[in-house]
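Reply to dn_fold:

You asked what the input looked like. This is it:
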Amino acid sequence: MRANPLSDTDGPLSQNTRKLLQTVGEIAESEGMRPYLVGGAVRDSLLEKPIHDLDLCVEGNAPELANTIERNLGAIISMQSQFLTARIELDGTTIDISTCREESYSEPTVLPHVQPASIDHDLARRDFTINAMAIDISPQRWGTLLDPFNGTVDLKNRNIRSLHENSFADDPTRIFRALRYSLRLDFNISPSTMHDIERHGHYISQLSSDRLIAELRKICAEPRFNDIFTLAQTLGIMARIHPSFRWPTEQTIATNEALNNGLSQEDIFLATTGYFFPEHDQINALSDRITNSIRSRDLLLNAAAIKSLENYLTEPHLLASIIHRHLSIYQDYSLNAVKAVTNNDAFAQILSRELNEFRLVQTNLTARDLLEIGVPEGPAIGSLLGILLTNILDNPTTTREEEVTIVTEWMHNPSNNH
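and this is what came back:
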């Protein structure tokens, strides 16, 4: 592990990034502000890993610094907020700048009250020791590492450790972050932190659905997302979201196959959740907690509904028209997702036939043909097309002439002429 990633020119920072940070540090100092590199960039640079995000914290006013950088360097300000934060785009690099601040929680799970403070207070409000470090980028103290909570020791020991025992009560989303970092970095969660997760895990149930969904999506974006959900299941965290929510440990193989089939990890998560959810009468309540778009809600609910058809649709010798009638109401993405995550090969074959065979079948006669034969406009057209589709699904060799006969017989049936 590198002792100081900014101390020399062969560190993990590219020359362009290094020069950019030096320039920003000079501007900040000229404005009477003390700038620091913070967050994941410090952690990853110490581990000599690639740095993807640049987060700066300044003892001063972050939006004012962003405005000065805009004037001096031509940066584009893409975001400014009332919470003394800003985001700039400069030379193809995104930099998030925040004012150093301290925070206090009036009660568990609520968003904190924040106010400007020193870098020491800012680091003390962070989640884990490995994220509570900073590197001074001002010209006079360039590369000086601040590590008040011995984060470098935990990095060396490959350890995830929270800053204080009430960390997860203050912000239960940190529980999900602990799991993400543990699997992403291949670190252990310290025994004391694991104890705090178990002690305060019940606060997850008090999170708003928006905050919960944001954390689940972050997990879905991780390369080892399946392992993260498996760990969450082992620790009882899934049940904190909903008592019947579970992530099946037997899902690993199916998940890997689904990834190979090109499904997004979020679709795999939703399909797996719906497919293996044991309490169908509770699926809407779960959906209210973990979905906030029409598509994600549909995928979750449809996976559960398609699962309920599994035993029936895998009965031997079932007619193609019956299978199609039950599955035709579902979108391709729902069927593809369930096909990818099911552990029933026979059912996967049924879903594949629906997707690649049954829903591609077309009748020989069209609606225009029916009108020319003499079928009156209106509901009769749709009824007859449905009859013809059912017939050709079950009898694929049906000819156009045979379909004309079916239509003619239907028209001459008095019961169809009301």
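The chain has four domains: 1-157, 158-241, 262-356, 367-416.
Hope that clears it up.
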